[in-house]
Amino acid sequence: AGHYLRLAVLSILRQTFEDWELLIIDDGSTDNALLELTDIEDPRIKIIRDGLNKGLAARLNEAIDLARGTYLARMDQDDVSYPERFSRQIELLQGDPSLDVVSVGAITISDNNEVTGLLPCPVTHEKICARPWQGFCFPHPAWMGTIGWFRKHRYATPGPYFCEDQELLLRTYSESRFGSVDEVLFAYRVREKNNWSRVVRTRWTFLKIQFHHFTGMKKLNYSGMALFVFSALVARDLTRMVQQMFKPLQRTPATINTAVTSKWHETLRATLDKS
Fold first, then answer.
1. How many CB atoms are located within 10 Å of the residue 243 CB?
2. What's 116-165 look like in SS3?
3. Alpha-carbon dihedral angle through residues 46, 51, 52, 55, given to the nearest 10 degrees
4. Which of 54, 95, 140, 150 is 20 to 30 A removed from 103 (C-alpha atoms)?
5. Are the C-beta atoms of 187 and 80 separated by less than 8 Å?
6. CB–CB of 106/121 below 8 Å?
7. Do 169 and 103 form a contact (C-beta atoms < 8 A)?
8. CA atoms within a 13 Å half-sphere pointing along the CA-CB vector of 126
9. Among 180, 178, 130, 116, which residue's Cα sits nearest to residue 153?
10. Do residues 47 and 26 make contact, with C-beta atoms less than 8 angstroms apart?
């Protein structure tokens, strides 16, 4: 995703909250991603590059150890943060000291930066964690939390297959407090074609994690519900896979209101102008 990295970095440079440091960790990339950043000079940016491929969980823990701020925010290399993201998340965290990690509302965007959907993102801890057997609607690339929370809990290593965030949430939700800014402040990129084998493998990995956790908590009914959810989701995935074989997947829902779409295009134009 190297050709998306510049847009991601520019979106951080446009944050209205300016007292940040940006750790860009290159996990053994092979697409010359960092060449897109050679003309960007900012003392707040630090690039970590050792040529190794350690995986997401290990790199996130590395960032946790290197971070010097009161809060830790994260983002993937192909996503975009709106200018007010940091300031609104810090405002929420400082306004409610009981919160450990917060996210924000997020749209989904295509490879060519068109709005394709809206991610479900409950605002309160109770709603985020209402159905742990179903997983947590809490967009991982848009998290911000206290550095103390991240250093206490950390990501499991080796990281579970594409569900590092869900494992961490499941392990900590009963002793933590999560929340979200009730405003769309993030664009999450979704690829045009799904890797169905990866989707199913990720679901299977998380099911095993759920079984282990719920069994240890003696919540066998939760295990049963997790199995039901897994079966329903895989059945849906298989149906979509067959449909996609005969007709390209359409990702243009009519539910995104004009204000949300307009704000995204305004953010995109201004971020690109930053370059």
1. 11
2. EEECCCCCCHHHHCCCHHHCCCCCHHHCEEEHHHHHHHCCCCCCCCCCHH
3. 50
4. 54
5. yes
6. yes
7. no
8. 0
9. 178
10. yes
- Our measurement of the distance from residue 125's CA atom to the centroid of its chain's CA atoms, rounded to an integer in Å, reads 17
Q: For residue 37, what is the DSSP state?
A: G
Say if residues 213 and 174 touch (Cβ distance below 8 Å). no
The DSSP 8-state label assigned to residue 77 in this structure reads: T
pLDDT tens-digit readout, 251-274: 544 467 889 999 999 999 999 987
For residue 91, the cross-strand partners are none
Q: Tokens 């007010």 sit at which residue?
A: 84
Residue 71: enclosing H or E segment and its boundaries? strand 71-73
- The model's confidence at residue 249, banded by pLDDT at 50, 70 and 90, is low
CA–chain centroid gap for 196, Å, is 19
CA distance 173 to 61: 19
- What dihedral do alpha carbons 30, 34, 35, 41 form, nearest 10°? -170
Residue 34 makes CB contacts below 8 A (sequence gap 6+) with 2, 5, 24, 26, 47, 49
Q: Considering Cα of 163, then 167, then 170, then 175, what sign does the dihedral take?
A: negative
Per-residue CA distances from 46 to 23, 40, 69 (Å): 5, 11, 14
Determine the pLDDT at residue 199. 93
pLDDT value of position 113: 95
Instruction: Give the span between the Cα atoms of 62 and 28, in whole angstroms.
Output: 14
- How far, in Å, CA of 97 to CA of 177, rounded? 10
Q: What is the mean pLDDT of residues 203-225?
A: 97
164: which 2 tokens? 């590092």
